[in-house]
Amino acid sequence: MDVNRLVSRRGMVAAALASAVPLSVVAWHFLPRITSGQSASTDAGGQSVDVPIETWNPFVRVNLTPTPLTDLTVSIDGPFRILAPGSPRILVQSGSVTDAVVSVEGTGIRFGDEVLQISQIEIVSARSPAIWVGRNQYRGSIRIYRRPGGRLIAVNLLPLEEYLASVVNSEMPATFPDEAREAQAIAARTYVLSQMKGHPQFDVYATSRSQKYLGYQYRDDEGRRLAGETPGSRDIVSRTAGIVCTWEGKVFTTWYTAVCGGRTIRGRSVFTDAVPAIASVQCDWCREAERYRWTSTVQLGRITEALQEHLAIEKAEFGQLKSLQPAFGDEGDLPFYMVSDGVSTKKIAGTILRHLLPIGTLSSPRFTTEIDGNEVRFSGAGHGHGVGFCQWGSRGLALAGRSALEILQYYYPGSATVRLRG
Ligand SMILES: [Zn+2]
User: Fold this and answer.
1) Are residues 165 and 253 in the same domain?
2) pTM for the full model?
3) 316 C-alpha to ligand 1 centroid (Å)
4) For residue 202, which of 236, 149, 163 has the smallest C-alpha distance?
5) How far is the CA of 24 from the CAs of 59, 88, 187, 244, 289, in angstroms?
6) Mind listing the pLDDT tens digit for each residue in 97-151?
7) Is residue 217 located within the same domain as residue 333?
8) How many angstroms separate the alpha carbon of residue 25 from the centre of ligand 1?
9) What CA–CA distances, in Å, run from 194 to 160, 190, 254?
10) How far apart are alpha carbons 99 and 153 in whole angstroms?
């Protein structure tokens, strides 16, 4: 499809894509839900998919607890049932509940006053959204699984398109232009489909480890309710319904980053699953972002300690850091650095240095450094891993009149964008 022919006017993206020919059309149908469906209905009916049927599951399973917890607080606004996943057996049935503490007890799970002799449960509400886990309320149902060490994880099951209505807002400000948000929705849809790899309990995390997902609504520190999804985000999702990016006929991991800082990093140099479409492209479209350029200062002792700890894993001795210089390499690849204590020199990736220091110290893996007395001063570009679709860059491109499809082509050159349909 010639995306250059597409105009950027609002509403034209979906119309243009409606005539796109899917690479392969497979009859669409829902996979059966494991529990009797009493909660969210889906408006995704009538679509078809161009991904193999075994990988098409319109229900997304989102791990809400990347770090397993000893207890969870659950509230449910209205009638609900607790079931054993995969079985119609009803363990609990009630009108509603407020602040029920869920924890591990013996060989089972405690839900408020009830102890259920089972290692996993599914909470299904009569209406959706209804279920709160901690400060967030979600559409769909919630599964809770026991984990070793007396811990639990919570997984939200809900239709893909409903999940995306929250991801679009969680990942991108509502003030960004519609075309940027449409591109975000398509990238997020493709990403989650690419992550459905048959994990027994969940497909993605609710954090930036996968993509941010705040649910239907949430409470802030002051207890105020804030919207996770809005009519605007639902509109963006329905306008792009079923549209995905493909490479050689398959959805791919559509890596994306907040601010690339001037040039995106070639995917293959960072992630083993990156297809060639995750190329390195010039992008100063993100120049209005706060962290297009950034600086930070770290105590020499702090970074020396971090390097020593890291190098100890490979049994390498390292004294006090004396120099830290960018290593020679292709400017499109992940930056590497040469670190030296004056005796030995080691080569280390920007991503590793970034993770060795406290979160937020180095906003991106691309920087220059200067050692001044007891301090190391960093001057860097961008925010995030720097790979793929640049979220702030998509804003700049949209403001310059580019359509959602043109934006995706810019960051994933050579990929196709197709609408899944029946
Ligand atoms: Zn950029």
Assistant:
1) yes
2) 0.85
3) 37
4) 163
5) 21, 36, 20, 13, 39
6) 999 999 999 999 999 999 999 999 999 999 999 999 999 999 999 999 999 999 9
7) no
8) 34
9) 12, 6, 8
10) 17
